[in-house]
Design brief:
Number of helices: 21
CATH architecture of the largest domain: 3-Layer(aba) Sandwich
Bound molecules: 5'-O-[(L-methionyl)-sulphamoyl]adenosine
Number of domains: 3
CATH class of the largest domain: Alpha Beta
Structural class: alpha/beta
Distance between the termini: 59 Å
Radius of gyration: 28 Å
Largest sheet: 7 strands, parallel
Helix content: 25-40%
């Protein structure tokens, strides 16, 4: 294999990977450290898929706080991406770890009244111990206090210093300890750091600077020439916007007189290295830069997953550092949004920080992984509440996918002596389902490769709905009562079970434990799961089907608190004067009221419905990945332009209807005084998808 040399031979300055390797480059080694479930990974699985190399990283987490759901999210989706890619035959490597140097950590250790080393050892272990509980299988866990990493950081610094790209000067600036960097005046809001809500401290000191400004033109050109390098697009635009201002040189040292918890500068031991300069280098260092075997193999096939708050360090500092060090630039920067809780930012002071293990207790590890991957539209903020987890669990896992698995197995068991039935001739309905799966599998793969995990899962749920519909249409329970339909019954149940097998395969990267059980329930314990299995028609007939137990038993949603149960009196008439005339008979129970699901939506597009002067057709983001199509009778009160960007209240569990041939999947709430309609507008800062109670 010659990935690296192939690349260094390319006459381009910014090193990107081509989309497809040659078949001779196929890696016939099992993915490292990953136990692909059901059976050992078989190289034969690769025959239909040309292999590529995929190195995925999470940020290394600061050890000044305990792991929370945000850290868990990035690490879980990194694990899911890598499992998917391995399943499809790619040679993968997955790195995570902890960021342990710098002022923030030193201050936390001092507060805890222990030495920094003791402190980081304890906290780093907390992260390391958590990941197996969340079914995360990383190949390596790096710590920035590792001796090897320290040596490598010093080697890079010395090299750049020898090149004349590091100089010393006196500097005065505003320093934010939370961000661990100097801030420009222009970044402050009301004199405070916008991320940490505290005024930065004024520091004046001699320091070393990296000539980052020299790379500005190169960086702009590289970003402009490579559309897919930063995903989603909006973050690429943010970087280009930032680069419109002159790029400053980067302060890369801290005088030990102020703070000594860090890596010594190799050329002046009165200073330690700025924590971000040290931390970013973890990515190649973990692979054994400059000449380690893994480095040769996996660099620069590197995909960095990061949260939006660390875009600047990864999208600006990091490529400039790599360029200066002569290390090829990473292949992809995939930027996700933040989890907010009940519409508010997670923070220690609000006491709303979600511990991943608490949520695991409630729904189990695999459903938690599913929720996180499914409910965050990659790149956007998403809302985390226990209710939302349960709604997704009951709606999609219990009612749709779990129900499909158990009904297709139970019906086959009861009608075919506990075995997979023989498949008779297939008809139009089977061809249609097969076609939906053929294109569906490709679609899911495309979404995963494009970092749109939420869409991939939405599509898998859609495939499951297709199979449920197929079963309903064919009503095997009726066929079972007609002896002359036995062959047809076999075909229907075989087709359903076979489709379930593919769905289980597609979900195996997301819910490895649950899908391993499901694979066994299909009688497939002896069969390995590999990418070749992800095709319709491969289920062996006649295998014994063990008695199914529900994979996702329904969980009762927690009752809403008594205080929030305020009975609303429905109005007979919309005029305010009539509001008090409600009779006892018109009252509804609180449970009836809570059957209505009200959510905050954001109108992302809007147009008039053709040939109607009353109707507007809006696309409303409800935090579900795909916007809902909603038709409302408000065209006489609002123009489409006024609608776009508005926050609205949506009744989200109405049966879809068609109005003038346009699908409407909800209702936008308005006030109505008999003359005017006015949209009820929640505050702009509420995240789409937030429930209203
Ligand atoms: N140590 C640096 C990263 C250095 S990488 C070379 C750091 N650490 S952190 O622990 O503060 O944050 C790590 C990651 O967690 C970031 O990607 C950040 O966006 C993410 N999250 C922190 N809070 C989050 C949410 N509420 N939701 C989702 N991710 C969040 O920054």
């Amino acid at each position: 294999m010659a990935f690296h040399s192939t690349f260094s031979a390319l006459p381009i300055r910014f090193c990107f990977m081509p989309q497809q390797m040659e078949p001779s480059d196929v890696a016939l080694t099992p993915p490292r450290g990953l136990s692909v479930f059901f059976a050992d990974f078989q190289p034969s699985a690769l025959k239909f898929f040309m292999s590529k190399t995929f190195y995925i990283t999470t940020p290394i987490y600061y050890v000044n706080s305990h792991p929370h759901i945000g850290h868990a999210y990035t690490t879980i989706i990194a694990d899911i991406f890598r499992r998917f890619r391995s399943l499809f035959g790619e040679d993968t490597y997955f790195l995570t770890g902890t960021d342990e140097n710098g002022q923030k950590i030193a201050e936390s250790a001092a507060k805890a009244n222990i030495s920094p080393q003791e402190f980081v050892d304890k906290m780093s272990q907390e992260f390391r111990d958590l990941w197996p509980h969340l079914n995360i299988q990383h190949d390596q866990f790096i710590r920035t206090t590792d001796a090897g990493h320290k040596k490598q950081v010093q080697q890079v610094l010395q090299q750049i210093y020898d090149q004349g790209e590091i100089y010393r000067k006196a500097y005065e600036g505003l320093y934010c300890v939370g961000c661990e960097r100097f801030l420009d005046e222009s970044e402050l809001i009301d004199g405070k750091c916008p991320d940490h809500q505290v005024p930065p401290q004024q520091h004046k000191e001699e320091n070393y600077f990296f000539k980052m400004s020299a790379y500005q033109d190169w960086l702009i050109q590289s970003i402009e020439e490579n559309e897919d390098w930063v995903y989603p697009q909006r973050y690429r635009n943010e970087l280009l916007q930032f680069l419109k201002e002159p790029l400053q040189d980067l302060c890369i040292s801290r005088p030990k007189s102020r703070m000594d918890w860090g890596i010594d500068l190799p050329f002046d031991d009165n200073f330690v290295t700025y924590v971000w300069f040290d931390a970013l280098l973890n990515y190649p260092n973990a692979l054994g830069w400059p000449d380690g075997e893994n480095y040769q193999k996996y660099w620069p096939h590197v995909h960095h997953l990061i949260g939006k708050d660390i875009l600047k360090t990864h999208g600006i500092y990091w490529p400039c550092m790599l360029k200066a060090a002569g290390i090829p630039v990473f292949q992809k920067l995939a930027v996700h949004g933040h989890w907010v809780v009940g519409g508010s930012k997670m923070s220690k002071s609000l006491g709303n920080v979600v511990n991943p293990l608490d949520m695991k207790e409630k729904v189990g590890v695999d459903p938690l992984r599913y929720f996180l991957a499914r409910d965050m539209s990659f790149g956007e903020d998403a809302n985390f509440t226990e209710e939302l987890v349960l709604v997704r669990y009951n709606g999609e896992l219990a009612n749709n996918i779990g129900n499909l698995i158990s009904r297709s197995i139970s019906l086959s068991r009861s009608n075919f002596e506990n075995r997979i039935p023989p498949q008779g001739p297939i008809g139009e309905l089977e061809s249609e389902l097969r076609q939906q799966f053929e294109s569906g599998i490709e679609q899911v793969k495309a979404y995963v490769w494009g970092f749109q995990l939420h869409r991939a899962l939405e599509h898998i749920a859609l495939l499951s709905s297709h199979v449920n519909k197929y079963i309903d249409t064919n009503a095997p329970w009726k066929l079972a009562k007609q002896p002359e339909s036995r062959e047809r019954l076999g075909t229907v149940l075989y087709t359903a079970l076979d489709a379930v097998r593919v769905i289980v395969g597609l979900l195996s990267s997301v819910m490895p434990d649950k899908m391993k059980i499901a694979w066994g329930l299909l009688g497939l314990n002896e069969k390995e799961l590999d990418a070749n299995q992800l095709a319709i028609g491969l289920l062996p007939e006649g295998l014994e089907l063990p008695k199914p137990t529900p994979l996702f038993p329904k969980i009762k949603e927690t009752t809403k608190s008594e205080e929030s149960k305020v009975v609303q009196k429905p109005k007979k008439d919309s005029s305010p004067a009539q509001a008090s005339s409600t009779s006892e008979d018109d009252l509804i129970s609180i449970d009836e009221f809570f059957r209505t699901s009200l959510k905050v939506g954001k109108v992302v597009a809007c147009e008039r419905v053709r040939k109607s002067d009353k109707l507007l057709h809006s696309q409303v983001d409800l935090g579900e990945g795909t916007p809902r199509s909603i038709v409302s009778g408000i065209a006489q009160f609002y123009t489409p332009e006024e609608m776009v960007g508005k926050r609205v209240v949506v009744v989200s569990n109405l049966k879809p209807v068609k109005l003038r041939g346009v699908l409407s999947e909800g209702m936008i709430l308005c006030t109505d005084d008999g003359k005017n309609l006015m949209i009820v507008e929640p505050p702009q800062e509420v995240v789409p998808g937030t429930e209203i109670r």
